[in-house]
Amino acid sequence: MTIKVFIVDDHYMVIEGIRSLLQNENNIEWMGHATNAASCLAFLNNHLPDVILMDINLPDKSGIDLCKEVKEKYPAVFIIGISTFNQQSFIEKMIANGASGYVLKNATQQELMEGIETVMKGRQYLSDEAAHSLRKNTNDERPVLTRREKEVLELIADGLTNNEIAVKLFLSVSTVDTHRKNLLAKFDAKNIASLVKMAVQLQII
User: How many CB atoms are located within 10 Å of the residue 9 CB?
Assistant: First the structure.
């Protein structure tokens, strides 16, 4: 399966560096790059990548805010935050706004490919340094959920159907279904009953 990858970063050397790491991978299709939030959103009007590698520091808007905007408009697109910063707060904010992963700019080719392939499976990926930073103050057993995922999870626990959740949160049914699948993957749950049970045990709901 070919994975369509797009990068948003305002440093040409970073773009070229990542492109050179990925260009010989047979399953990667390089869709191009944007150097700011505005050109990223313009690109997404006409093209839909599978994975966006998104810098958290952009000239016209925070990548953290852009991540949230892109995920709300295009929930099927997976976003991996890329940054020179491994502070816990940056990582948590990106994940909370919908990112499926976080990789530092000094990541190896292996880490980058592992991250792209992991998020494509609906799972979360943190590079070693990012995971270490997050692990300092986070209970590893608790999946990091976005604000929207937590809302959907609470409504699932209340027994609402996809259609009912869609109406309540003003979302499309397909978007709700995507959130439901992501929740099952993050909890590694086989069905909704075990998902809710695990969420209660971990005191997430």
Answer: 25
